[in-house]
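Lab meeting tomorrow. Look over both lines:
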Amino acid sequence: MRNRAIGRPAEILLIEDNLGDARLTREALADGRIPHRLSMLFDGQEASEFLHRQGVFARAPRPDLILLDLSLPKMDGRELLAVIRANPDLAAIPVIVLTASEAHEDYLRAESLSVDAYLTKPVAADRLLAVVRQMKRDWLEHLLQPVGG
């Protein structure tokens, strides 16, 4: 009983334009045995439409966690992050930034937009899994808080 998952699998949205990095992330999540459903998008504009449930994404699931590359076509990750944080319906979704950039400016800008974690690529699978597991624990703890507590 102890190994049974509580509730539904986590809805994870991966926004990554590099197919190799996307594959590595997908494999890390699968190998880490984190119960999840993964939606994957390749550009910032498409991700914005998904998050706002527009057009073909009208029935898109609301993600519990977003894995976001900063260097995206059409709308870069910084712009998308600003859109997410400006929308009351999306602002509380945890965001992990995955980027090849080690530039301090990227780190500071991500921090100013309330990023929950910032990981430089190539991201070690164990590091990614540790951060995702911690966020899942925080999420479950929040859901299991007693009313009025």
Q: What stands out?
A: Helices lie at 19-31, 44-51, 77-86, 104-112, 125-143. The chain has one domain: 10-136. Residues 28 and 124 are 9 Å apart (CA to CA).
